């Protein structure tokens, strides 16, 4: 099967032309480039809007191996992590360009399954897949996705807007679950039974099929009191540092307020791992970390809970040198948190 036949095999009849037109697509997959109507109306946005663009790459051996991800999971996650970046700006995801570099070990059917997962994510979040690129790879699979979205002009939520006295919050599933799932998947591969330690399905799901907080991002933008926002891709500590440095202040986090999954804590105990390590430094949770006016924090929490969405108030900001500190639960000591998390070049 040649390149063009492969592309048709992976993408044909996935999204109707009529549905794509609802996302402003004039011309999708099949030409030198896609065409999008620059003036199309976006249902949830009234008035002028700005484009939001994000790109992430997943590399076999770095982001996934056969022990941790099925082909469908790779495709789903490759798109989901980009959608999460749009959500972290308060935006609406719209279009995706997908580039794959395919080794011989990933034949047409394995790639078809990858696209099954990618299109499942696209359908869930209303994203039109409009093009991309396909090349061969000498050894490892590489999946690079670019997502475009839109946000009300001048309203995008940034890392740099936190103010002294804000409340610090997390919106999304409890942190540390993805790292626990990854740990368990590797343990199962190494011992075939993870030394008898059962791995909860929720932890596997958290790692393989993250859920971007698009609804949460939109709710936060509409409130008008959210001052900064970031998604937890590289770890809570790392993302908190990014807000602190971008905003020029300190974040104070309370250990006892950090959302802790019961399944994650139970698995950590059985696996003899400190769950706080996963919570602070594990990453790939894709919850939204941000700051909000303290006067609106509890009302925002109530509004989220009314919509069935998790929302946790975990700390506060204060003026001073940029940094992140943790108040320990048992000792109430205030300890600095290292600027540590996943880093490709460390």
UniProtKB/TrEMBL annotation:
One biological process term from GO is: thiamine diphosphate biosynthetic process
Q: What else is known?
A: Reaction mechanism of ThiL seems to utilize a direct, inline transfer of the gamma-phosphate of ATP to TMP rather than a phosphorylated enzyme intermediate.
**Encoded by which gene?**
thiL
EC number of the protein? 2.7.4.16
Q: Which Gene3D superfamilies match?
A: PurM-like C-terminal domain (3.90.650.10), PurM-like, N-terminal domain (3.30.1330.10)
Annotated binding of substrate, by residue: 63, 284, 342
Signal peptide range equals none
Q: Which InterPro entries match?
A: PurM-like_C_dom, PurM-like_C_sf, PurM-like_N, PurM-like_N_sf, ThiL-like
Any idea what job this protein has?
Catalyzes the ATP-dependent phosphorylation of thiamine-monophosphate (TMP) to form thiamine-pyrophosphate (TPP), the active form of vitamin B1.
Question: What phylogenetic lineage does the species belong to?
Answer: Bacteria, Bacillati, Bacillota, Bacilli, Bacillales
Per its record, how is this protein called by name? Thiamine-monophosphate kinase
Q: Where is the PurM-like C-terminal domain?
A: 163-321
The PurM-like N-terminal domain covers 30-151
Source organism per UniProt: Paenibacillus radicis
Residues bound to Mg(2+) 5: 234
Question: Which reactions is this enzyme annotated as catalysing?
Answer: thiamine phosphate + ATP = thiamine diphosphate + ADP
């Amino acid at each position: 099967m040649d390149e063009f036949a492969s592309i048709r095999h992976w993408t044909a009849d996935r999204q109707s032309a009529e549905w794509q037109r609802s996302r402003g697509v004039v011309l999708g997959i099949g030409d030198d480039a896609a065409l999008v109507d620059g003036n199309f109306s976006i249902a949830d946005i009234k008035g002028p809007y700005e484009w939001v663009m994000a790109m992430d790459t997943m590399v076999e051996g770095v982001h996934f191996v056969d022990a941790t991800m099925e082909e469908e999971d790779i495709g789903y996650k490759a798109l989901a992590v980009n959608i999460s970046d749009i959500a972290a700006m308060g935006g609406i995801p719209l279009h995706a360009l997908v580039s794959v570099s395919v080794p011989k070990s990933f034949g047409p059917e394995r790639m078809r399954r990858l696209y099954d997962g990618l299109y499942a994510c696209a359908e869930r979040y209303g994203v039109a897949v409009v093009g991309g690129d396909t090349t061969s790879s000498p050894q490892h699979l590489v999946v690079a996705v670019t997502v475009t979205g839109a946000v009300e002009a001048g309203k995008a939520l940034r890392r740099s807007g936190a103010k002294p006295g804000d409340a610090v919050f997390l919106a999304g599933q409890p942190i540390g679950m993805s790292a626990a799932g990854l740990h368990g998947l590797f343990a199962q591969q190494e011992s075939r039974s993870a030394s008898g330690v059962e791995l909860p399905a929720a932890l596997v799901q958290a790692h393989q099929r993250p859920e971007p907080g698009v609804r949460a991002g939109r709710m936060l933008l509409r409130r008008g009191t959210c001052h900064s926002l970031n998604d937890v891709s590289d770890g809570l500590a790392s993302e908190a540092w990014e807000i602190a440095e971008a905003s020029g202040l300190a974040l104070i986090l309370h250990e006892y307020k950090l959302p802790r999954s019961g399944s994650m804590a139970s698995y950590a105990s059985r696996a003899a791992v400190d769950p706080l390590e996963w919570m602070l430094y594990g990453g790939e949770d894709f919850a939204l970390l941000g700051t909000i006016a303290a006067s609106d924090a509890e009302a925002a929490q109530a509004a989220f809970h009314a919509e069935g969405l998790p929302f946790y108030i975990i700390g506060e900001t204060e003026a001073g040198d940029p940094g992140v500190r943790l108040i320990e639960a048992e000792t109430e000591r205030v300890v600095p948190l290292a600027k540590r998390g996943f880093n490709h070049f460390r």
